[in-house]
Write the structure tokens for this entry.
Amino acid sequence: MIDEAVGPSEPAPTADPRVFSTVGPELVDAVRAARPRRIVLQVPAGLVRDAHDLAAHLRRETGAPVDLGARACFGACDAPSRDEAPRADLAIVLGHSPIPNVADVRTTFYVEMRSSRGDVRAMAETLDAAGVPKRLGLVVSVQHMDLVGPLSEELTRRGYDVLVGRGDRRLAYPAQALGCNYTGAETVRETAEAFLFVGTGRFHPIGLAFAVDRPVWAIDPVQGSLEPPIDRASLVGRRQLLVATARDARRWGILVSTFAGQMRMPTALALQERARARGREAEIILTDRIDPRDLVGRDLDAYVSTACPRIALDDSANYPRPMLTPPEFLMALGELPLEPYRFDTFH
């Protein structure tokens, strides 16, 4: 069955006029209607190759000047700032959905690049053959959101209990994954035997494994390939070891991102207060995108990032000193135990 107690099996169609499934006539018509003086186009790394052709297409179809944002884009949390595109009054962000509790700094159109590609019957057969547990939480990237309903129905027909969780106010859809927020999965964690991520790459499966203490399988809906469960114990063990190395740190840098969707100054101030109460020095460091080169040569023993938690979790080896998340920082101070491990969910 599909567990209706935690949310529908398929997200309701959005009525948000800012959101478009793909680059198509609806987007062009909306841009024309908005009559922008200038457009800034932001794309994720995987779509950079097509960005220039898309910019030319928009210029040709709408008559509006189009600038391309060069900075790597990781989500709606780091859409182009006013400083980055001071002349643009319309932003077009590809590959991401809006974050409901983050206000746009200008009119912004989100093109989610939805794809319904994927043979749900073949996918279900692959899960059966691998012995994936039957009480299964479903998590997807926004590009493959249209598969939630068909895949849930096919799995239900085969005897699975499909659990689709509604997340908090940061998530636009049930079952949606954000790198900083897996609260949809967390709402069904106690019921689920395992989780299935539908999408490409290991970024979301790794984040999901940090957030829920259940086996996390991942299936690529286009290729049909199934990855075995993430080794969560190894992931968490490495983080706990890093926390242990930072326990004697006396001078801390608390990193705060100025991106609208990543700014957590209240959290940073609270952590600074906790550090000082424990006899540590702690300085707040402001930046937009956190770059290891900006931290070289500083007289600090360790860092805590209040920006996207994946900076610390995925890129820690790139930094000159230990880089922790806020819960890990409290572990290092002795205010939280190492177990259970707490993912730094961005609400």
Notes: The first strand starts at residue 2 and ends at 3.
